[in-house]
Amino acid sequence: MRKRISLLAAGALVALGLATTPAHAADPVFTLAGPAGIGLRPHPGQSGEPQKTSVEFRVVNDSTKTFDRPSTFTIDLSGLKGIADVTLAKDRGADCKLTAAAVTCKRWALWTGETTVVNLDLSAAKDSKVAATADLTLTGTAEGATFKAATTKVRVGGPDLVLDRAPLKAEQKPGDKQNLSIIFANEGTDPVNGVVLEMRTTHGIDLVEQYDNCSYSSDDTGAGRPWNTGWTTVQCLLEGEYEPGAVYGVDGPLTLKAAPHAFIDGLTYAVYAAGDQPKAAKNRAPAAAPRDKLAAAKQAPKAAARSAQQAADLDPWNNIQEFDFATRNTADLVATGVSLKGKAGETVTADFGFRNDGPAWVAYLRSGEDVARTDIVIPAGAKVTKVPAGCRGVNADGTRRDQTLGAPRYFCSTGHVVGEKETFAYPFQLKIETVVADAKGSVTVGQETPEGTTAQRWDPNHSNNKAAFVINAKDTGPAPTPTAGTSATPAPTGSATPTATATPSASATGTGVTTNGGGLASTGSSAQAIALGGAVLLAVGGGLFLAFRRKAGGHA
After folding, report:
1. Using one digit for the tens of pLDDT, what is the confidence trace for 453-469?
2. Dihedral of the CA atoms 498, 500, 505, 511 (nearest 10)?
3. Prediction pTM value
């Protein structure tokens, strides 16, 4: 007999089925990004050839998952006709095609974080007019996703601040003073309403004068921002209108002074249209006592080409200059001796390390190299059971070892900054497995070598680079004393070719660098990403340190 089901019952089952079907999660929303605006140098450019300006568009995936469906991105180029010519850059990003009407790019998945969609090179069209504008808008589509569009305003012409290189001396002594002369020009087509002069100095260089229209700040020195350790940033607002074709000079004194702890130091200085300057950290005003205001005076006035709207700088690469200082100074690294007592089976704790008796601080801010290594040899009968960050176990001959605990020897690295009065202490735990009377090891500090350490050329007293590490010393035990050695009194001199920077290893906790503030460019100079090219290296005796990247050229 055929079973029947009523219409009412069937409806109830359908409703139950709908209720138990899981709801689809909301489609992800991705943000497209690009610069707010770019300026193009009017055709045909300063060299007689069209000057290209690059623009990068990106997609931001803020979720924790990869979006694994194909996406299509489009930029409508119709508005650029007669204003700008477009080509795909070599590092174009996604799989892109360019036609006269549009740029179309495809991506087969969107990883978490930011991903480049496309890089475009733009130049002013042959018959384009100064102040002509157009919008470049990037849109995106994908099944199961939504994209927020990004628009970049393209403008022919704009200001172009160009900063001269100051005639500074690289080699100096503690206490030496130099005048920082600031000369800049506006080589663009538009005036600039207000200029911000930014000067960033490392811990060993002081700026003597303070002005009422300047702010002073110390950059973030937290664990996540190690490259800013030891920098000070000064930003001064120079009010007024800076005309195209005119050259200006800052007429107030700007004196740089080498501090008693100066050694390997640097300076960056830059000019920005007011509002375009990088954001400085922890701003503080100058002292309350009344002071003069810093200003700039015109040196070579010419007719100005006016514009109602201030545009982006045509070439931000030439807004900035950098300089390296080599101060004749020394830094005395002193190893800390350790004497322990304990019974078999006991676990003891000890801090191994060194201190810097100065007078100089040492910082490899560009290369990220470790300033010093502590080499710890474990006495017989003891086994290391806990190792701090920044330390690794090695074999007795210094060769690589897979297991960290129980090693006969340890290498601990400082990181790229050692303050002028800083102490490094690496806390270890050791188990005394067997009591060995007068068991001796050692603690040595110096420059890293494949086998261990060697004395730094800039360290004036090599005799205190090594100290005794004794467990269960006989009688009262000898006080750990430094071993004999040689000495040297170097000064940073010379130059070499640049190399790539490296990421510093974790350092031990210590008293820290007592700085007067901090900051440098893009590595640097600022939160604004301005890549700097060619660099200078200083050789400290036999050790190299990287100096600052590209030296921006002066104006013509």
Report:
1. 999 999 999 999 999 99
2. 40
3. 0.72
